[in-house]
C-alpha cells in the first residue's frame, strides 16, 4: 500500500523497519508527559482558562515538534487531578500501570465484540467480573461485563431487569397492561432517568423516594411509594438502592430496602458505582452489608480503585440473564461455547480492552494497597468532618459514610438567602488563593462545598490550606 503521503512514524512497521524513529517519537512524548505530571502540583488544580486549539485538518502532516508543542499545551490546559489540592470531584490520578495498560490496549487494538477479535481479553474479562461479583457475595453463578462508565452500566442493568420482569426482549413494551415504573431515592444518580428515557419508559418512570437527614432512602417511604404506584395502575418492576450518593457519599439501608423488594417481588439493583470499592477494605466493607442480595450491581473501579477512565461494570447475580434476556447474536462472528462474545451481551458492540488496566491495577496494588488507600481516605475524612463540626460558621450536609464531606459556610452574620452566593465566592477564593479545588453542588436546593478525598498525595498540609483559607475568607467577608 502506498504510504508516501504519511510521515515515517505514521504507523509502527511490523517488520521493525522504522523502530528507531518510533522509539524517538515515543520517548519524546513520554519524557514531556512525565515531566508535566511530575510537576503537577506546580499547576493549578483547574486551568485559569481553556486551551485554544484549532479543529481544522491540515493538508500535509505536521512536524513532530509542532505536535509535541500542542500536546504540552493540552496537558497544561487540562483538569489537573494529580494536584493534591484537587479534592472536588470523584476523579483521581490513575495508577501508573493503568495508564500503561491503556497504552498496551490501544497498541494491540483488540475488539471486545467477540472472542475471535479479543481472545485473551475476553477470557480475562469473564474471569475478573466473576471474581468481583464474588467479592460482593452475589453467588456462584454471578458475572457481568465492563462498560464505559456507570451510566451505561446502569442502563445495562435496568435493560435486563425490564426484559426479565416483563418478558419484552423480543416483543417490546406495546402489549403491556400498565406503565412500568422503578424506584430510587431523591438523590440517586440522574443516569437512572436517562436509562428510563432510553428504555422507552420516560424519565417520569423513575419514582423519587424520600430520604432521611443523611440522604439515605427511607424504607417506609419506599414501601408507600410502591403501594401508591400499584394503586394508580402503574406496574413496579425495580428498586435501585445507592451505595455512595454522588453529592454526600451516603449509603441506602440495603437490607431494609431488600425487605421491601422481596415483599413486592421486584428486581433489586444497587448502584455502587462509587461505594463498591469498600469490598476491598476489611475495616469498612461491612457498610455494604445487604449488597449480596442484589440482582444486579453497578461498580466503577475508575473512581476509588484508581483505574484510568473509563472502567465500569454491570454485574448480575445470575449471569444467565444476559443470555436469556439481553443477548442479540452477531451471526458474522464465530461463537465459542466456553467464552461468550461479550459484544452480544453488552450495550456496546465494539469496545476497547478496558479490562487490561483494571487487571494490572489489581495485580500491582493488591488487596493491601487498595485497602490502605481506602482506609487512609477515611482517616482524612474524619479530620475534615471534625474540623467542620468544630467551627460555628460551618455546617455539615450529612454525616459522612465514605470519603466525601459535604458542608458549607453558614455564619450567623450572613442571611440564609445570601449563603449560596457566599459559598460560591468561597469556592473561587480557595482555588485562586489556596490552590484547593472543592466542587459546588446543589443539594436540597442550596449550594454546598464538597470535598472528595481520593488523591493519594493529599495530606494534612492540604487540609490546613483548606481551613486556613476558609478562616481568612470569612474574616475578610465579615461585615
Automatic annotation (TrEMBL):
One of its GO terms (molecular function) is carboxy-lyase activity. It comes from the Archaea. The modification N6-(pyridoxal phosphate)lysine is found at residue 303. Keywords: Aminotransferase, Decarboxylase, Lyase, Pyridoxal phosphate, Transferase. Residues 40-64 are annotated as: Disordered. One of its GO terms (cellular component) is cytoplasm. Its cofactor is pyridoxal 5'-phosphate. One of its GO terms (biological process) is amino acid metabolic process. Gene3D superfamilies: 3.90.1150.170, Type I PLP-dependent aspartate aminotransferase-like (Major domain). Pfam families: Pyridoxal_deC. Belongs to the group II decarboxylase family. This is Aspartate aminotransferase family protein. It comes from Natrinema ejinorense.
